[in-house]
Amino acid sequence: MEENTDDSELYESQSDLSPDMDTWIGAFCALSGHEYFAEIAEDFIEDDFNLTGLSAFVPHYKEALEMILDVEPEDGTRTPDVMLIENSAELLYGLIHQRYILSRQGIQQMAEKYDLGHFGHCPRVFCSSTLVLPVGRYDTPGNENVKLFCPSCGDIYTPPNSRFQDIDGAYFGTTFANLFFESFPDLVPKIKQTKLYQPKIYGFKVSERAKTGPRMSWLRMKPDSAEDLSNFQRLSSSPAGSVNME
Ligand SMILES: [Zn+2]
Question: What is the pTM of this model?
Answer without folding.
Answer: 0.81
